[in-house]
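Students often ask why we bother encoding 3D structure as a string. The short answer is that it lets us treat folding as translation between two languages. Here is a chain of 81 residues written in the first language.
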Amino acid sequence: MTRYDGSEEGGVLMNDILKMEPHIILSLINTKLRDGDGDLDRLCDLYAVERRDLELLLQGIGYRYDEASGRFAAIILPTER
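And here it is in the second language, the structure alphabet:
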């Protein structure tokens, strides 16, 4: 059976990624993006995850994908003066 981490034994099943705690997903995805080429579409294809589902999940904890840096970063809201 193919696993998220690319191994045949152990690791996280691809179907279970979006069921994990969102902050763990954030850490996992940003690590994979940092260690790879920072291409979210390629990463989602590789691990059979819908990009939109991933983005919505991480937006729910205050993060968005930043194309320039190739990672998910905290959403900074302007403050009122």
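Translate back mentally: The first strand starts at residue 63 and ends at 66. Keep this in mind for the problem set.
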